[in-house]
Specification:
By secondary structure, the protein is of the alpha/beta class. The protein is built from 4 helices and 5 strands.
Length: 148
C-alpha cells in the first residue's frame, strides 16, 4: 500500500504577495533622508556695481546648467566661487562643456573691472570651445528680483 500524498503536509504556505503595509513608511523615511542630506549651492554675496545694459533677458536655464565665472577688479577669476588662475579657465571649462553640452557660462564682473581682464577670460572661453556665454548686468539682476 502506497501513500498517495506522502503523509506530510505543510501547514502554512509562503505568500506570493509583497507586503505593502510598510511601503509608505519606507518612502517617507527615504524622502526625509534625501531632504536632510541635500546640499544647495549658494553664490557668495558680492558687493559689486553691476554693468548697465539697455536690454537684458532672464536666463531660464536650470541652476546646474549655469557656470558662474566672476572677474574681480584685481583680475582674479572665480569659477563657482573657487579661485583659479586666468590660465586655468580653459582647462576647467573644456571638460565641463564636453560633459554638459547645454552648459551656459554666466560671466559676471564689477562695472569697474578693466576690459583687459574680461577680454582674457573671453579668449580662454573661446579656446575651451564655450558656445553659450552671457554677461550678467544690473538690468538682469532687477528682472530676477522682480520675478522672486
Amino acid at each position: 500500500m502506497g501513500l498517495k500524498s506522502g503523509g506530510l503536509q505543510r501547514k502554512s504556505k509562503a505568500s506570493q504577495e509583497i507586503p505593502s503595509s510598510s511601503m509608505a513608511d519606507i518612502a517617507f523615511l527615504l524622502l526625509i533622508f534625501f531632504m536632510v542630506t541635500t546640499v544647495f549651492q549658494k553664490d557668495k554675496k558680492r558687493d559689486i556695481e553691476w554693468p548697465e545694459a539697455e536690454a537684458a533677458e532672464k536666463m531660464d536655464d536650470k541652476q546646474k546648467d549655469i557656470l558662474n565665472i566672476w572677474v574681480e577688479v584685481s583680475g582674479e577669476v572665480y569659477i563657482n566661487d573657487q579661485l583659479w588662475q586666468m590660465e586655468d579657465v580653459r582647462s576647467i571649462v573644456r571638460p565641463l562643456y564636453a560633459e554638459n553640452t547645454s552648459l551656459v557660462i554666466s560671466l559676471r564682473s564689477d562695472q569697474n573691472v578693466r576690459y583687459q581682464y574680461i577680454d582674457l577670460v573671453q579668449k580662454e572661453l573661446q579656446a575651451a570651445g564655450a558656445l553659450r556665454v552671457v554677461f550678467a548686468t544690473e538690468l538682469e539682476q532687477d528682472i530676477t528680483r522682480e520675478r522672486r
